[in-house]
Specification:
The protein has ten helices and 23 strands. By secondary structure, the chain is of the alpha+beta class. The strands form four sheets. A seven-stranded mixed sheet has the order 1-2-6-7-5-4-3, with no helix packed on it. It has a seven-stranded mixed sheet with strand order 10-9-8-11-12-13-14. Strands 19-18-17-20-21-23-22 form a seven-stranded mixed sheet, with helices on both faces.
Amino acid sequence: MDASLDNQLLTEIKGYSHAGEGVGNYLGKPVFIPLAARGEVVRFNLSEEKKGYAKGCLVEVVRTVPWRTEALCPDFQHCGGCQLQHLTYDEQLHFKKQTVIDALRRIGGLEKVAVQDVLPMDSPWHYRHTVRLHGQRGPEGMVLGNYQSKSHFVCPLTTCPILPAGFPSIIADLPSLLDAYGADTVKEVVARKGRSTEEILLLLKTEGLSQTGSLAIWNELRARHPNLRGIVIQSNRALTGQISTVVLGQSFYNEIVSGIRFHIPATAFFQNNPKQTEVLLLQVKALCEPAPSEHLLDLYCGVGLFTHYLARDYKLVTGIEENSTAVAAARENAVNNSNNNTVFNCGRVENTLARIARNMPAPETIILDPPRQGCLPGAIAGITALSPRKIIYVSCNPATLARDLALLVKQNYHVQVVQPIDIFPHNYHIECVAKLQSLD
């Protein structure tokens, strides 16, 4: 269904894109309309037209559906930090499961893989304990917030129902302090908060300088926010690259997840939803089916999330991670948790696996949790050369998950199950855990 009315068009929304946009029809090709919901009939303006698709802006919902809801956040339609608050939580879970199924079929050619229902969050608010915000100087001074959708205009963060208590206020205080002291523009702020410890850590990314402002700025900020444990400035320099400087307190924060204490540096990756991370850990352990006589290999291990959680269930756990700061933290976390059967190797996975194969016992199980771009071909080749019986693949990107699962299937592995977990409520991102079993 599509028609014209006063330069507006009418279409029925048949489903969603991978980014949560409603998908309708315009002259026989898909049109992607943000904020439209499956089953609705909507009026829209055409904003872009390509040979194989079009993009539109929602004008009016002509026929609504029960799964449309009012967004809790007043800035939802402008902020760019969330994409799904106009949908009920059940509809968000429906969208996420279908996105995984579609990616497996379309990209991986995996038609018969069992995709389980998405494991939901009991209360999908105030969960995001890591947030990355952009800085921009405007006529009234500097602002921090998210880029509005498909733009480089920063929407100032005023309130945010997905952030934990204490985050919006410290972020709101930061721009005025920087302006008051004449500090350089901060390009990006990464704020992190421990769910169990309440500790807050700020990473400020700047251009050119390793110091921003004076110590008085940071002392005033800490006076307002006593849980602030440290501020790290990361500066990009033309000749020396990134330089990190601790300007206040410490360069890390502490978190406790499922009884395991983690020391997490400002520049190391850690899951942003601690509550659902506990669900993730339980799923990974169940799929691993650990045995106390076996060797577990944890690839892209970061600060050792899976390594330390599973260490007591295996004879040996070996981690590989290319971020040297994260590896140092993983080793410290081993001491803090009395895990004496863990070994950590610093290097790229694709370059390190061969050495592991020569010097370590063969792993029965491999966990891999790569970044969004998935595994490089060399990593896939190195994994299959070790011939593990089980591979547990943790992914935040269904597209690269589907691609890599298809490559592993060609190497005589069978995908037993894919379990989506909602670690990013109100956001189109999806976490999945897949289990593969060797057919040899």
